[in-house]
Amino acid sequence: MNIAVVGTGYVGLVTGTCFADTGNNVICVDNNIEKINKLNEGLLPIYEPHLDLLVKRNIDQKRLSFSTNLLEAVKKSKIIFLALPTPPEEDGSADLSYVLNVAHELGKIIDEYKVIVNKSTVPIKTAEKVTNAIKKNANVDFDVVSNPEFLREGFAIDDFKKPYRVVIGTSSEKAEKLMVELYQPFVRQGNPIMIMDEKSAELTKYAANSFLATKITFMNEIANYCEKVGADVDKVRKGIGTDARIGKSFLYPGIGYGGSCFPKDVLALKKAGKDIDYEFEIIDAVLSVNNKQKLSLVEKVINYFGDDLSNKTFALWGLAFKPETDDIREAPALYIIDALLDLGADIIAYDPEAINNVKGLIGDKIKFAENSYDALNDVDALLIATEWSAFRNPDFDKMQQLMKSQIIFDGRNLYDLETMNSKAFFYQSVGRATINNLKH
């Protein structure tokens, strides 16, 4: 098939590349000329494992190209995916201006039947709004489909190529047939293509992300309670995770969720409920707990050192909101940095991929190290905010020599307590016993 993908952000780039990799001809469109020129050279604006190799392969085989020419891309394509930003407004609602502006332009361009697909995360009735925007200028038949993405950053290629399910929201048999044909190569192992109405498809994405955010937040509440009563959250997690009704995933406690999806989508669902006078009480609790959880490591630091940190220097391992990405949107590390700076601390940080993004955001407010050990020189404590694999098996003897004080506040429970009990460290994690083997 001939496909256009409008928007070359995270979702658009993965979507276009994966469709090209199954033999389709794909044009990805963006109005950023510099970005398009780099993409045509195979230079990616984001970090996602294996994506660079797929982009290069499909460019070389002339199935994937990048352009600023929306008209040309639409004319050549049967299916047009809208993978555009829907950032949160101040009230939490999704900003649909990017989507609707492009829809308005599509109405001027299309001169034969097209399928327009909302790939962006959008609230209920967006398909209707896109349809109306296109109709203002279009004189031909077209269909608007809701096809939400369920990609995990760091695993996006696998998630796209081997989806748990494909959700297609449409009332058109013609559009349904084309969409099922397009996705058939990705569900050969039997995972379902689910056809539903547009509103249900739109809500499915918000409901899924909000439920997962709730699951994470519930486990963080349990972890906080464990610390108060002396229980071990790892044992509780395993105890409940073996129940098939609950499942093992998204039960790992930590310092809150971040990223581009969960924070935005939870807020948007809350606002959507408010708009029709429905109060999502669980969502309110999720937002409140998660905001507190992002600063839970800072509370531990204050409990240990006091609230005047003007003579203290802290190492921070991890800046991205999760491993295998350079995405720092709503990352707990950013909240930790702000709080520690407000208390007078100095910070030296390391992350395998996200340093440049943080530099671009906060400049020289903190220092950055070239590797994890360089961040430890003469620091008063180490804070761990992201569970990168590179942090999981460190040389503790080397760490002990480098650090002024052998103190670790682990926000991701990277190390088992038995291991830490054999080391000369003060070690405090989330929902587990504190280990203090420092000699005074």
What's the SSE blueprint?
Blueprint lengths: L1 E5 L3 H11 L4 E5 L3 H8 L10 H10 L3 E4 L2 H7 L2 E4 L14 H13 L4 E5 L7 H10 L6 E5 L9 H6 L4 E4 L3 H11 L9 E4 L1 H32 L3 H9 L20 H14 L5 H13 L2 H10 L7 E5 L14 H11 L3 E5 L4 H8 L4 E2 L12 E4 L11 H7 L4 E4 L6 H5 L4 E3 L6 E2 L4
Parallel strand pairs: 1-2, 1-4, 2-3, 4-5, 5-6, 7-8, 9-10, 9-12, 10-11, 12-13, 13-14
Antiparallel strand pairs: 14-15
Provide structural commentary.
- The protein has 440 residues and is α/β, with parallel strands linked by helices.
- 42% of the residues lie in helices and 14% in strands.
- It has 17 helices and 15 strands.
- Strands 11-10-9-12-13-14-15 form a 7-stranded mixed beta sheet.
- Helix 6 (126-135) links the parallel strand 5 and strand 6 (142-146).
- The protein starts with a strand and ends with a strand.
Short summary of the structure?
With 440 residues, the protein is α/β, with parallel strands linked by helices. It has helices at residues 10-20, 33-40, 51-60, 70-76, 97-109, 126-135, 156-161, 173-183, 198-229, 233-241, 262-275, 281-293, 296-305, 332-342, 355-362, 396-402, 417-421; strands at 2-6, 25-29, 64-67, 79-82, 114-118, 142-146, 166-169, 193-196, 313-317, 346-350, 367-368, 381-384, 407-410, 426-428, 435-436.
Rg (C-alpha, Å): 24 Å
Number of strands: 15
- Strand order, main sheet: write it out: 11-10-9-12-13-14-15
Amino-to-carboxy terminus distance:
70 Å
Overall average pLDDT: 96
Low-confidence parts lasting 5 or more residues at pLDDT below 50?
none
How helical, in percent, are the residues?
40-55%
Tell me the overall shape.
elongated
Sheet having the most strands: 7 strands, mixed
Structural class label: alpha/beta
Enumerate how many helices there are, as a single number: 17
Strand fraction equals 5-15%
